[in-house]
Specification:
homodimer, alpha/beta, Quinone Oxidoreductase, Chain A, domain 1, Rossmann fold, 7-stranded mixed beta sheet, 12 helices, metal-binding (chains A, B), zinc (chains A, B), oxidoreductase (chains A, B), Zinc-dependent alcohol dehydrogenase family protein (chains A, B)
Chain lengths: 339, 339
């Protein structure tokens, strides 16, 4: 099969690799309908994370082509969406809704889903079948549910976005934008998107942002306080993962408020005393997308949300290298790869 | 009046100071019935925090002797308990239950309550009157409500201790021990006190601990995992404030679990990536004791809890220096000073 491999930072190639096969009786094999490039794929692309001939990708939707003999809830031919972490969905951690930290959690990125086929471990616990074969125009939104939507949604839930709340969103990538969408769906009263890119501001407004703040760092924090009677936001979504973005999130949150942080931390160090006196609630990590998939699939199926709009560039998988370049140069917010 | 002053690290003296007077119309003056020494007073005593001829103390119960003309809910003669932070109790932060981070929050430690009298700012928002004059044997417990009980209680609430939960408590000082009591009152199923001091283990058991873990650091974490099916505790109370205790708390908590941290942070730095992948909820800071005072006073008044048991040494205020020595040398858990 054809698959995307990052040979080294900045060096993306599409190679022939062996088709995956069922290894464990709980595995399923899927034929990808679409896949995509994640903001987190840019860390190794820029040389900030190690990479060496690494198969890429962890987001996926597709059709089941084979199942192991212990798979009970899925059939060959089902159209499925899965999380970027495989999970058994039966352990105490999963049952509490933290499937991405399942005691058997397996990162799909280690298998690579920017490919024609993928092996999905713990298929019963990882995959959710759609109500039927989706119309083609629903595929991008279903793909988004696999990570960026699920992650933005988790961030909004972790930040306790809801009625009467003012929510600030740090980060205007696909996750931040879908955090805006999630906050709106969860009933937030006011949603402040922090962005200095006109096209992303427009999509943020379309997804439900009521205010835009262009300032960053201390100036951004000051602006959030100004917009919230001096108190800070009730809820802040952090969707970047840098020291600056984390401190911006913590300082923009009022005492007793909630931060949902989902940007994978890079060289972040939190000062204990500042955190102590901030009085905020801090919760985040790799999103337990599986928890939200049934609800998100239904919202998409019913055409009540359209998260697929974050894909502003679609390329055949053969042109993956151009997709990485476009995202890295911020010419694209999120790139969908057709398989 | 007589008052405790820390001249320099290790140098505690009882001096004559001017009696406090009403400064703002929202002030009250109280005659202390009892006061005490806090674990946090030991940081400057040991030279870990700056100190220079500093009046000491922030815990207090007593009788109102004078009120400013804007004080509406209290009368001269009322017996009152107050938080270690004065608060207006009307701003949005207070109304959300975070009075210690009130926009007008004022640390009582800056005024010093290890003294015969104290001025209490925002008296209406800070003080809660007891149902009547307390019996003498209730005074230690009411004094505990002012900080250590309120702080342990907040930690248990922040850690979401409750029915069906396993709660681990890091720190066997007065706050940790009262965190055990709070977890029990909140209905926790299992409470693991981490302590290697026999006398404190005994009090922890009396307050409701079901298990004792003597190991610390990685060994302590391993023991907590062993006791919880490999998952970690649902809820962890952190009541120390060091790097080791914070990491012990984070690592002992299962993914999706909750940490309530109330030890004032000293040289703590949290690695963003470890925190990210821990998947825990982190919440803490200076306890909003005022939120809990009405409930705690009633529990004490009805003799349903006896937090005053944490005081294992009572001295007249003139012997404050010996009280500090005893706590610093861990000969006493918590010292009550009679005034």
């Amino acid at each position: 099969m054809r698959a995307v491999v990052m040979f080294a930072p900045g060096d993306i190639r599409v190679e022939e690799r062996e088709d995956p096969a069922v290894v464990e009786p709980t595995d399923a094999i899927i034929r990808l309908a679409a896949t995509c490039i994640c903001g987190s794929d840019l860390w190794p692309y820029r040389g900030d994370d190690d990479v060496d001939h690494t198969p890429m990708g962890h987001e996926y939707v597709g059709v089941v082509t084979e199942i192991g003999h212990d798979v009970k809830t899925l059939q060959v031919g089902d159209f499925v969406v899965g999380s970027f972490f495989a999970s058994d969905n039966t352990c105490e951690i999963c049952q509490a809704g933290y499937q991405s930290r399942c005691i058997h959690a397996y990162p799909m990125g280690a298998l690579g889903t920017q490919a024609e086929y993928a092996r999905v471990p713990f298929a019963d616990g990882t995959l959710v079948a759609t109500p039927g074969m989706p119309d083609a125009d629903l595929v991008p939104s279903l793909l988004a549910a696999s990570d960026v939507l699920g992650t933005g949604w988790f961030a909004a839930v972790a930040a306790e976005a809801g009625p009467g709340k003012t929510v600030a969103v740090v980060g205007d990538g696909a996750v931040g934008l879908l955090g805006v969408l999630a906050a709106r769906q969860l009933g937030a009263e006011r949603i402040i998107a922090m962005s200095r890119h006109v096209d992303r501001q427009a999509l943020a407004r379309e997804f439900g942002a009521t205010d835009i703040v262009e300032e960053r760092g201390d100036a951004g924090v000051a602006r959030i306080k100004e917009l919230t009677g001096g108190y800070g936001a009730h809820s802040v979504i952090e969707a970047v993962g840098t020291q600056e973005s984390m401190m911006q999130a913590i300082r923009a949150t009022r005492a007793g408020g909630h931060i949902g942080y989902v940007g994978v931390s890079h060289d972040v160090s939190l000062d204990g005393l500042e955190l102590f006196f901030s009085g905020v609630h801090l919760h985040g990590g790799p999103a337990p997308v599986r928890r939200f998939l049934p609800e998100l699939i239904q919202l998409i199926w019913d055409r009540r949300i359209d998260p697929g709009k974050v894909f502003d560039l679609t390329l055949p998988i053969e042109d993956a290298a151009e997709g990485y370049r476009a995202m890295n140069e911020r010419r694209a917010t999120k790139v969908l790869l057709t398989v």
